[in-house]
Each structure stands twice: as C-alpha cells, then as structure tokens.
Amino acid sequence: MAFLFFATTASIKKTQVRKSRLLHGRDINIYSETDTLPVIGTTRIRTSGHRVLVLKGNLHAQGTRFESLRGVASGVSRAIIHSRGGSAQNNVCGGPRNNNSDEQVVIKAIADFNGASHRASRSGDLSSNLVLSPLSLEVALAMLSAGAGGKTQTQIQSALSLPQDQCQIRSGFNQLLAQLNKESAVTLKVFDAVYVDRRSSVQQSFITVAHQYYSAEVAQEDFRTNPSAAIVDINDWVAQATNGTITDIVGPDTVTSDTRLVLVNAIYFKGAWKVPFNPSLTTRDRFYSDNTTFTKVLTMHTIGHFLYSDNKALQSHILALNYQGENVKLVIVLPYQRDGLDNFETLLNTIDQLQLGNLKDTYVDVSLPKFKITMTQELTPLLKQLGVTDAFSSAANFSGISNSTDLKIGSVVQKAYIKVDENGTEAAAATAVAISTRLAVVTTLEAVQFNADHPFAFVLLHSPTNTVFFIGRVVQPLANAPVVLSQTTEDGEIEVRISVG
C-alpha cells in the first residue's frame, strides 16, 4: 500500500461539498463546488459533530460500495509533501482509452522499476527479512506525477521507468489495474484513495485524474484543525482494506495541521495454493543462517508437479508455487549455497533474469518454511538514489495539485506484510486435508529435492501480465516465533532453546 502525504504552509481556499446536511449511514452523490467535475461517486458516510467522516465507500465508476477484503499479502507506501511550486498542467486525455500498447508500456516500466528498486534496497540490512511492493510504490508515484510539472515530473517518471507522455501513463495504469482487479480465483485488489483537506484549493483536474484513471476514492478531511481525526480515518481505511494486516500507517509525526492532501495506494492479496501443504506433515526442521549456525523452524512439506528450473547463471534453484486459478504465483529462489543469497542478489539486475519462461513441469519434493514478515521502510533514500531529488526540495513543482507554490515531499514510507503457510488462505483450509492421501502414495517417479533450509528470495507475481506485487528475502522464518538456536562444533551439536517474543 502506498501513501503520499502533502503538507503546505500556504493559505488554502476551502473546497465545499454541495450537500450540507448529511444523514448517518446514507448513500449520497458528491459533487465539486463548480460543477466542472462529474459526480465523483457514491459513498457511505456518517457524521461526527460538524465533521463529515467518510466511513466506507467506493467511488469507482460503478458507484458500488466498498467491501473490506482479506488476504495474506498487503503493502503500503506513503509520502508527505510540504510546500513549493511552479507550473504544471494536468493534460486532458479524453478519458481512458482502449490501447493495449499503453498497458504494455506500463508493464515494462514496472518490470524495470522492480529491478531498480531491488538493487537500491540492497543498501539496507542484508541479514534481515525483507518485503517490498514496487507496484504499490509505482502506482502511488504515478498518480503523484499527474500533479507534478517540469523537472519534478520528469525525475519521477524517469525513476519509475515511465514514458513522459502522461496520457499514455494514465491509460496504461487504468487498463492494468482493471485487469488485476478482475481476478476471481484469488482475492487480488488494488485500491487508491485521495484524502483532501477541506480548506485546500486542490486542483479539480488532479482529483479528476485520480478518480478517472486510478479509480481513486475521494474524501475530505479537516487536517488543519483536527489532524488526529484524519489519522484515525486513514488508518481505519487501511486496516479495512488489508483485513487488519496493515495498521497505524500514519501518526502525528506524519499527518499534522500542515498536511493538505494524502494519496493512498493499497494492494491486497489472498490466495489458496493449487497444491496445498498438509499441516500434519509440517515439522520443525533446521534452517541455516550460514554454513554452521541454524534454527529449528516450522517447515511445510509436499510433493507433486511444479514449475521448476535450475538457473546456473544465478546459481539458484527456482520453484513456482501456483495459487488457485494459476494466474498468481509465488516464485521461490533458493541459492545453491547456504550463504549464497547475497551473491544471488548481487547477480540479479532485472526480474527477467529469473527466466520464468524456462520453468518446466517437474516432479518436486518441496520443503518450505512457514514465514511471516511485517516491515516499515522509509523509501525516501531509495527514490533519491533513483534520481528523484527536486520533489523533496524547495525546487519541487506540484502546481498540478495546488496553486500553492511551496509544496514538496516530506517523506515516502511503505509498510508491507506477507504471510505464507500450509493453506495459502483461510478459505482453502478444507482442501488441505484432501491432499493427505495423495501425499502418502508411493510412486516410482524420482522427485527433484527442493529443500529451502537456508536464506532464499521470493517474488509474488501475476503471470498474465508478468506484474510483480511483492519481492523479498527470508533470512529468519517466523522470526517472532519461539525457535531453537543451534551451533554445530567439532565436539558435536550444542543446542539452546530460547523464546523470542
């Protein structure tokens, strides 16, 4: 999920909503003050004193109500903008167009950004777990670029590997997001939201682009006099969209009385394995952090036909685990050597190097530790490393968002979560039992051993579009669970049980 926060010290005019009396829990149409915008959408609201609080709503073109989703993977990024200015224009593109080439341009840009963000992320702590959603960050920043101008816009689009044609960017994302949200075999949803300060003179053209091309929900907040209420509203929206996996994405250090606009992108995934793991076969096995030191972690086991390859260029075994419907895959990259993850990440420059097209149907005996990762990352250094510098300085140009001449980004933060267990999802729990007899069948086929007993990388992707949702590394599976630490010595194995809370 990605959040972009805009704060300004400039005086801002109040943008009004036509309806002045709103009833608790009632569906209403929201219009702009000047009627130059179409109906933004239908939203479910409730009132709190004189403050209108958007509780639930879906401002997509169909006007359907927002439904909270559930999943095993979610991501959040956010950026805070303070003041500055220039001259930017929101080009009129004539509405979403049906041009497949636009979508392909965006898909390629996302793939390139995956590689760039992965390389940049290596500047952090390589000895710890990592989960990052480049797609979440890309969508949020692409929406932001619609309100940027001049060098600021050029730097953002270049860092994202996007073309300079805003109409092509908007059309491409509009088509891609529509395709991703059509998945039915798994829960796969991409949400966008724009929170506007009710006193701010945010450009209506920017709101139109956010809604029309990114299907963004639009809500007003009283950032100036009641930022704490805005914090609650935004955090509640995030928690609902991610089934509680992402909480407290914003706080008083990020949303203040100077905040004027918040952009949010949320990606939420939940899918059941096509071939589930039988929980009765899960055992506590060794997981090596190096050649001698290991922990005992809960490890899942299954055997069956999977897509697999031996990638000698990356010195790694690659396994793809399908979710129901087979359009979404979890790709596990297991280096040959126990301490080979650092070398793999050095060799990997683009996702294309995984050569997923070369994966073959193979009979594989799989051992994979259960893992869960939650992390918050400050992505400002990453973006600056990729060339986005003006947006964070007094040279920033966000005049396509507001007439204010002193807007700038304060910070960009992403909070992400991923959980992998036997079922893949709660909805698939019943099917996990059904496979137990199949696992017990004796076969004469020789299975390839895929034993993830040391640090590995993972990629969660959408196969039809080759769009990567999450990338990461597992160095400490279930790091917060009780573990058994062991050290192998010449005198034998010394074992100490500890509990990590």
From TrEMBL:
GO CC terms? extracellular space
Entry keyword annotation includes Cell inner membrane = no
Query: Which keywords does this chain's UniProt record carry?
Result: Protease inhibitor, Serine protease inhibitor
Tell me the GO molecular function terms: serine-type endopeptidase inhibitor activity
The family database entries (Gene3D superfamilies) matched by this protein are listed as:
Alpha-1-antitrypsin, domain 1 (2.30.39.10), Antithrombin, subunit I, domain 2 (3.30.497.10)
Q: Which SMART domains match?
A: SERPIN
What Pfam families is this protein classified in? Serpin
Does this entry carry the keyword Iron-sulfur? no
Taking every annotated instance into account, which residue ranges of this chain make up the domain Serpin? 113-477
- Which family is this sequence assigned to? Belongs to the serpin family.
- Stated name of the protein: Serpin domain-containing protein
Look up and give the organism this protein is from.
Timema genevievae
